[in-house]
Design a protein that fits this description.
The complex is a heterodimer of chains A (276) and B (313). Chain A is mostly helical and 276 residues long. Chain A has 13 helices and no strands. Chain B has 313 residues and is mostly helical. Chain B folds into two domains: 14-66, no CATH class; 77-307, MetI-like fold (Orthogonal Bundle). Helix content of chain B is 73%, strand content 3%. The longest helix of chain B has 47 residues, at 2-48. The chains are: A mainly alpha (276), B mainly alpha (313). The interface between A and B is large, with 93 and 99 residues. Chain B: It is a multi-pass membrane protein. Chain B: Its main location: membrane. Chain B: One of its GO terms (cellular component) is plasma membrane.
Chain lengths: 276, 313
C-alpha cells in the first residue's frame, strides 16, 4: 500500500510537469493580447475562446487554414508514400538473396544516423539548381525517403513473412508483384502502421526543411506560419494572441492522435530494437 | 563430382532471378535515397571545396566566379570561435541532457510497470502528449513560460522572493534542455515500456520466489533486459541533440544570450541565408554530419562490444 502511494505520487508530480504547459496554452488561448501580459497565466480572465479562435482562422484571408491544409498534405501524402516505398525496399532486403544486399542495407542504415538538418542545407542548394526550391515538391520529396522505415520493414518482414509461404505462392504461379501486394503487405501491416505514424509525426514536426526550402508563405506548413506570426508580433501585438491560439489549434488534433495511437506505437517500435 | 560443380551455377542463376525481382522493389526507394541522401552529401562535399572569388578592382562590382578552395572553408569554420563554441555547447548539452532524460524515462517506465493498472492509461497518455507538440510549438510555448511579463512561473517565483531568469547567460542552455526533455521523455518511455512488455512474466515470478523485492527486480532483471531499447533511444537522442535548431531559433529574439552561432546548425543556417556564404555553410554541414556519424557509430560500437553476451534476452 505504501509502495502504491509513493508510486502514484511520483507519477502525479511527473504528470503535472508534462501537463502544465498544455494547461497554460488552453487558458491563454482564451485571452486577448493585453490580457496575456496583464493577467495571471495559470487562470482564466474574461475568456472569449470562440471569438479569438475565429479571428485566428480568418486573419489574413484565412492563411492559417491554408497552412494547416499544407501541413496535412505534406504529412499525409509524404507518410503514405514513405510507407509504401519502405515496405517494398524492406521486403526486398529481407526476402531476396542477391549480391550487394548487405552493402545496400548498411548504406541505408547509415542514412538513419545522418542528421536530417545536415542534409537540408545541401539539399536546398541542389534543389535550387534544378528549380525545385520553393515548391511543394521541395518539402514532399525528401519526406518520402525514410531509411528508418526501410530498416523497420526489413526486420519485421524477416520475422513475419515466412519463406515457405512465398515459395508456395510462386509454385502456384503468382508473380512477385502480386505476392508482395497480397501476402507481403498484409503480413507486414503492424510494421506499416508504425512506419506511417512515425513518418507522419516526423514530417509534421519538421521545421528546418520547410524553413530552408520555402519562401512563399502560401506553401508554409503550420509551424513555419506560426513562427512568422511570432516574428511580427513586436510590431503587431494582436499576433501574440493569434500565435497562442494558432498553437492551441495546431496541437489539438495531434494530441488526440497521440492519445489514441500510442498503443500501435508500442507494438511496432520495439520490433526494431529487440532484434537488432 | 558433377553435382558439386553444378551446384554453384544453379545458385547463381536463382541469385540472378532473385536480384531481378528484388531490384523492382528496391529501385524506387534507392532512386530517391540517391537524390535526397547521397547527392546532397556529394554536393555539400563539392561545394565545401569551392569559394567565390570576385574579379575587378578591389573585389567590387566585377564578376564573381567559383574557384577551388581546397580545405580553406573547413579551416575557416574550425577557426571560427563561435562555430567551435557552438559545437562544444551542444556536446555539453548532450552530455547532461541525454543521461538525465533517459534516466527520467527509465524511471517513469519502471514506475508505470509497477503501478496498478487503473492509473497506467492516464499517466502514459499524459507523459506521451508532449511528443505530439512539434519542437517549434513547444519552444513558442515554453518561451512564453520563460519570458518575464507573461510567464506565470516567473511571477510565482517573484512573489516568493526568488529572482529567476530563465533566459540569462548561464540558464538559457538548460532552459532549452528542459524543452527537449519535456518533449521526448514520454516517447523514450514508451519505447522502454514496449521492451519491458517483451520480458516473459515467469522471470519476475521466479525472482519473487527467490525473495527479490521490487527494487531488486528492477535493478537486476528489468534494467539489463531493456538495454537494447536504452541504446536505441540514446543514439536517437544523440542525433537529435546535434541538430538542435528550432529551440534556440525561436528563443533567440527573447534572449540576448543566444547568438547566431549558438548551435552548429544555427551557424550553418545563418552562414547560408544571412551571410550568403553557402560554401562555408556546406563545410559546416559536412562537419556536423561527420561528427554525428562518428559519435553514433562510436557509441553503438562501445555498447555493442560490452553487451555482446548480455543482449540475447
Amino acid at each position: 500500500m505504501r509502495h502504491r502511494i509513493i508510486t502514484v505520487s511520483l507519477l502525479t508530480v511527473a504528470a503535472i510537469y508534462f501537463l502544465t504547459p498544455v494547461y497554460w496554452l488552453v487558458v491563454s488561448s482564451t485571452k486577448s493580447s493585453s490580457d496575456l501580459f496583464g493577467t495571471f497565466g495559470f487562470w482564466f480572465h474574461d475568456p472569449h475562446p470562440f471569438d479569438y479562435l475565429h479571428r485566428v482562422l480568418t486573419y489574413d484571408d484565412g492563411i492559417y487554414v491554408r497552412w494547416f491544409a499544407n501541413s496535412l498534405m505534406y504529412a499525409g501524402v509524404g507518410a503514405l508514400a514513405a510507407t509504401l516505398l519502405s515496405a517494398a525496399a524492406g521486403y526486398a532486403l529481407a526476402k531476396f538473396r542477391f549480391p550487394g544486399r548487405e552493402g545496400i542495407f548498411n548504406v541505408i542504415l547509415a542514412g538513419v544516423l545522418i542528421p536530417g538538418t545536415a542534409l537540408a542545407l545541401p539539399l536546398y542548394l541542389l534543389f535550387s539548381e534544378i528549380g525545385l526550391a520553393n515548391t511543394y515538391w521541395a518539402v514532399l520529396i525528401p519526406s518520402i525517403v525514410s531509411p528508418f522505415g526501410v530498416y523497420l520493414c526489413r526486420i519485421y518482414a524477416a520475422a513475419a513473412v515466412p519463406d515457405s509461404l512465398l515459395e508456395a505462392a510462386r509454385i502456384d504461379g503468382a508473380g512477385e508483384g502480386r505476392i508482395f501486394s497480397t501476402l507481403g503487405l498484409r503480413l507486414m501491416t503492424p510494421a506499416l502502421v508504425t512506419v506511417f505514424l512515425f513518418q507522419f509525426v516526423h514530417i509534421w514536426n519538421n521545421f528546418f526543411l520547410p524553413l530552408v526550402m520555402l519562401s512563399d508563405s502560401d506553401l508554409y506548413p503550420i509551424q513555419l506560419g506560426l513562427t512568422s506570426w511570432q516574428g511580427y508580433a513586436d510590431r503587431q501585438p494582436e499576433l501574440y494572441q493569434y500565435t497562442v491560439g494558432g498553437a492551441f489549434l495546431s496541437v489539438l488534433p495531434l494530441m488526440v492522435l497521440m492519445g489514441v495511437l500510442q498503443r500501435y506505437w508500442r507494438t511496432g517500435l520495439t520490433e526494431g530494437s529487440v532484434k537488432a | 563430382m558433377r553435382r558439386v560443380s553444378k551446384a554453384p551455377r544453379r545458385f547463381t542463376r536463382t541469385e540472378a532471378r532473385s536480384a531481378r525481382a528484388a531490384s523492382g522493389f528496391l529501385l524506387p526507394f534507392l532512386a530517391l535515397f540517391l537524390l535526397c541522401f547521397i547527392a546532397p552529401i556529394a554536393y555539400a562535399l563539392y561545394e565545401s571545396l569551392l569559394k567565390v572569388e570576385r574579379t575587378g578592382p578591389l573585389g567590387l562590382g566585377g564578376e564573381t566566379k567559383q574557384v577551388w578552395a581546397g580545405l580553406s572553408n573547413y579551416a575557416h569554420a574550425l577557426e571560427d570561435d563561435r562555430f567551435t563554441a557552438g559545437f562544444g555547447r551542444v556536446l555539453l548539452f548532450g552530455a547532461v541532457q541525454i543521461p538525465l532524460m533517459i534516466a527520467f524515462a527509465t524511471a517513469l517506465a519502471l514506475l508505470l510497470d509497477a503501478a496498478s493498472a487503473r492509473w497506467v492509461g492516464f499517466f502514459r497518455t499524459a507523459f506521451f502528449l508532449p511528443y505530439g507538440v512539434p519542437g517549434v510549438i513547444a519552444s513558442i510555448l515554453w518561451g512564453f513560460l520563460y519570458v518575464p511579463g507573461i510567464s506565470p512561473l516567473v511571477e510565482m517565483a517573484d512573489s516568493m522572493g526568488w529572482d529567476v531568469d530563465f533566459l540569462g547567460r548561464g540558464a538559457v542552455l538548460w532552459s532549452i534542455a528542459n524543452i527537449v526533455t519535456w518533449q521526448f521523455t514520454g516517447y523514450n518511455m514508451l519505447v522502454l515500456i514496449a521492451q519491458l512488455k517483451a520480458v516473459p512474466g515467469e522471470l519476475y515470478e521466479a525472482a519473487r520466489i527467490d525473495g527479490a523485492n521490487a527494487w531488486q527486480v528492477a535493478r537486476h532483471i528489468k534494467l539489463p533486459l531493456i538495454r537494447p531499447a536504452l541504446v536505441l533511444t540514446t543514439v536517437f537522442s544523440l542525433i537529435g541533440t546535434l541538430q538542435l535548431f528550432a529551440e534556440p531559433k525561436v528563443l533567440k529574439p527573447l534572449s540576448n544570450s543566444i547568438d547566431s552561432g549558438y548551435t552548429p546548425n544555427l551557424a550553418a543556417y545563418n552562414e547560408a541565408f544571412t551571410s550568403n556564404n553557402q560554401h562555408i555553410a556546406a563545410a559546416e554541414a559536412v562537419l556536423l554530419a561527420l561528427v554525428a556519424c562518428v559519435l553514433s557509430f562510436g557509441f553503438l560500437r562501445l555498447v555493442g562490444r560490452r553487451g555482446k553476451d548480455g543482449d540475447n534476452g
